[in-house]
User: Fold this.
Amino acid sequence: MEDEGVVYKADGIGEPIDIILPTHGRLEDLTVHCVSAIYAHTRSPFHLIVVDDSTPDMDDGKDQTPQWFKRLQIEYQNITYIHSDVPYKSGNQVFNIGLSLGNNRFVTTIMNSVRVEPDWDVVATQMMAGNPKIGLIQLKCLKNGWSEKEDGQIESAGICITEYVPCDIGRDEPGHRLANSYPCESAQWAFALLRREAVEGNLDEDLMEGFVGFDDIDNTMVLRHKGWEIWYCGLGAGYHQTHATRGSREDDVLLKNRHNAEIFYKRWGYWDSFKAKNPYAPEYYPDGVEFICDISKLPLTV
Assistant:
């Protein structure tokens, strides 16, 4: 007689995950393709949590994001959709809303500018389940929409800090490379697997200017400071159209990015290195930025 205490799982089916999908316009050219790929290529059972602040005036007055997801909810019973007519102020606000609407121990952040590849979740979820010290795993991001020549090359395989500059590991290398896994100094959150226990309560919504860079890298440093390991998994991949929905090169966006950079440098021990190389750079926050620690002295693994 079989032991009644043993639970047998169907082959290839992992534990459920929450997927947080922020949307901000671009329904036809981004969101539809992103969602279609998630349903086609995700092996684990999942709860799709859509956090949307699209407005009817987007996409030349043709945005239909709320209507599209309402119809999709008729087809699929695993979608939670929340909408705001007021733009969200930061990525962390979006993530915190998404976290509040789920309950699985593993949570994925997938921007609508990401198109996941088959079985992207299999190895990463096994890694996180097997190592309780891992707080976040970045998946491989491949270039999409950069140019015909560059599409498919690696955009990011984790983040390293060079002096004070966050740099994408593997940038411009052929997409088949870096199919291994390793601990990282930091990570981007466009396509990442998070441990709920690690991130809940640790995402400050008001620290930085929203949607202009550095906030996700700072988030990762917070996790490391609290004792969590950050990893990259090259056996899960997706195509990422960088800065597709909120990116801009306008002067006000550049200024906000510089504000965030200064906050990041001062919190994690990079400010002196930055000033040494940039003696004429303005200082926007002479007071008020709390130094957390010299992050470069923390080990990558616990």
In short: The first strand starts at residue 17 and ends at 23. The radius of gyration is 20 Å.
